[in-house]
Design brief:
Helix 7 crosses helix 9. The protein is an alpha/beta fold. It binds D-xylitol-5-phosphate and zinc ion. Zinc ion binds next to strand 2.
């Protein structure tokens, strides 16, 4: 897809705070408490099958869209079979829908369906899944999401063994003249942001590091500042 890297502009990273760690009774207020320090709204959809957690449905996405008409809404589907959920989420008005490659019976068709609905398709890989699983669909993806923890829950520890996959994606993107963004999800905080951006990550998802903080705006700013330090080195 064309123009995806342009979304990042001249920044170290795009920051996508995950509402999985926001106050469930006050998600809108949690987002507002960032005071604009977050770039995207990351919505983690877990089905209790693909991952052992049950979270949000399409109604959360459409409600967010009404409350934040100009927001960039980044939906991360951790559901199986992914194709059965596409229609209900495309209708909810997100900007990106990412499906896990392990959760789709027909990943090519699924990404195409998202694209046909006018939404940016993303494809995710778990820590135990190799990058080569994505090769046949690179050209369809506007974003590749690299899970840096096993998916399902916030607050887990970053898995550094995933870093070579980010570097591998950067190389393949350049060699094949592709334009997808690389998003990292899980265990992102001000301590891990630098190494991720240095490896080539464009979009940092952060849940607990932002929303479990007493001052989410400051926490988001610190993540961004640490990313910038490494990015300029
Ligand atoms: C985990 C989700 C993540 C989660 C990250 O399955 O995909 O987006 O919210 O949470 P933290 O940042 O707390 O690791
Ligand atoms: Zn996520």
């Amino acid at each position: 897809m064309n123009g995806m890297l342009g979304l990042k502009g001249n920044k170290a990273c795009i920051l996508a705070p995950s509402i999985l760690s926001a106050d469930p009774l006050a998600v809108g207020d949690s987002i507002r408490s960032l005071g604009g320090e977050g770039d995207w709204i990351h919505v983690d959809v877990a089905d209790g099958h693909f991952v052992p957690n049950l979270t949000f449905g399409p109604m959360m996405v459409s409600t967010l869209r009404r409350a934040f008409p100009d927001a960039f809404i980044d939906v991360h589907l951790m559901v199986t079979p992914a194709e059965d959920f596409i229609g209900m989420f495309t209708n909810a008005g997100p900007n990106i829908i990412t499906v896990q490659v392990e959760a789709a019976r027909h990943i090519h068709r699924t990404l195409q369906a998202i694209r046909d609905a006018g939404i940016i398709p993303g494809v995710g890989i778990n820590p135990g899944t190799p990058v080569c699983m994505l090769e046949p669909v690179f050209h369809l993806a506007g974003l590749v999401l690299v899970m840096t923890v096993n998916p399902g829950f916030g607050g887990q520890k970053f898995l550094p063994e995933v870093l070579p996959k980010i570097k591998c994606l950067v190389r393949k993107r350049a060699v094949q003249s592709l334009d997808f963004l690389i998003e990292c999800d899980g265990g992102v905080n001000s301590g891990t942001a630098g190494v991720l951006v240095k490896a080539g990550c464009d979009v940092l998802v952060a849940g607990s590091a932002v929303y479990d903080s007493d001052d989410p705006a400051r926490a988001a700013r610190e993540i961004r500042q640490n990313a910038e330090l490494e990015w300029r080195v």
